[in-house]
Amino acid sequence: MGVLEIRNLRLALNGKQILNGLTMDIWEGHVHAVVGPNGAGKSTLANTIMGLPGYRAFEGDILLDGESIREFAVDERARRGITLAWQEPARFEGLTVRDFIRASARDKSSDSIKSALDRVGMGPEYLARAVDATLSGGERKKVELASIIAMEPRVVLLDEPDSGIDVDSLERIFDAIRFFRERGGTVIMITHSPTVLSHAEHAFLVCSGQVTLKGTIDEIMPYFTGKCVPCDHRNAPALDSRGGEA
Ligand code: ADP
Ligand code: MG
Q1: pTM (2 decimals)?
Q2: Quick one: CA dihedral 173, 175, 176, 182, positive or negative?
């Protein structure tokens, strides 16, 4: 069943057309991947779905459970269960990990916060740590994912969940995504990595602000080996270091 329907999105930023009639169906309780070259408009798509300031003036529509959310501001979309984890791990200088997770948690008990942290493979010794540059990029990303687990959103957009992450942490992130999906959550992962793509169930190839191909993982995977037939974008993807000869 389609939880999120993206219909013919068109968006210009600073006079430049970035999204060019992008259409995408997102299925409830499934994991989706969005791949495509740098500059294709993937992050713009995520920001537009989230309704961030500067990304509201689009043509087309975004439907959540069949209802248009185009007039909703970011906080209203968040209240209805859409959340976005940024490509760059957020920094909330001054907050402890505990307070950062608690801020968005549905269940604000200590046990719930500890178990969300445990889900991403981080022990209680992190609770009192500050969310700042003393955490590594990977640790900040895991803390952000823990906060999403505690938030229990319906749809989570992950913009390059693997960037700046070591292999072990990435496995933790996949575990957390699996846990979230098992509880009925819907996931959209934007990625440059065949490894991340292989953890999805449906995939979309985005080029020049349009979906040029959609299908199973096997149908989209050839993009990473240079067989991006429907796409004439000049930025051919570099093989991901973790992806091997996917
Ligand atoms: P991707 O995430 O697929 O790499 P982005 O969505 O970040 O691509 O960017 C798509 C295009 O939009 C790029 O050409 C980028 O330079 C441009 N772009 C992104 N944000 C802005 C902005 N705020 N103003 C103008 N152009 C932008
Ligand atoms: Mg991006």
Answers
A1: 0.89
A2: positive
Phi, then psi, of 65 in degrees rounded to 5: 50, 40
Q: Copy the structure tokens of residue 160.
A: 């390059």
Ligand 1 atom, smallest distance to 41 CA: 6
Nearest CA to ligand 1 atom 22: 13
In the numeric block, which tokens belong to residue 39? 């500059």
Going from the C-alpha of 85 to that of each of 89, 159, 212, 220, the distances in angstroms are 8, 6, 25, 23
83, 156 contact by CB (below 8 A): yes
> Which ligand sits nearest to residue 18's alpha carbon?
1
Q: For residues 188 and 85, what is the distance between their CA atoms, to the nearest angstrom?
A: 10
For ligand 1, the distance from its centroid to the CA atom of residue 32, given in whole angstroms, is 21
Ligand 1: residue of 11, 13, 20 to mutate (most ligand atoms within 8 A of CB) is 13
Ligand 2 centroid – CA 37 distance (Å): 9
Beta-bridged to residue 82, according to DSSP, are 155
Helix, strand, or coil (residue 155) = strand
pLDDT tens, 133-169? 898 888 888 898 899 999 999 999 999 988 888 888 8
